[in-house]
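The records we work with from here on pair a chain with its fold. The integers have meaning only within a learned vocabulary of local backbone shapes. A complete example follows; check for yourself that the lines match position by position.

:::
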Amino acid sequence: MMKENCWEFKRCGRGIGGQKVKKLGVCPAASNKTSDGINGGTNAGRICWLIAGTFCKEKKKGTFAQDKRSCMTCDFFLKVKDEEGNSFKMAL
């Protein structure tokens, strides 16, 4: 069973077919098929902290190394970490 993805949790409208896609584009986490299934998500939807170019509060983020502190305190990151427990994957 697939779990809630970042664009669903954050309600950013940038998932594939989302309401803000025309204005802001599809989020790289929503379109990154190489990460599909990690932490039970669709594409990179539950490992978004590793994907460059994702948005947080409508501000474009850089790489995980640059944004490590903001990602590790993000409510969605903490939710995934809690839900996955010992199976949590922080990196690929």
The beta strands are 55-56, 59-60. The chain has a mean pLDDT of 87. Residues 6-87 form one domain.
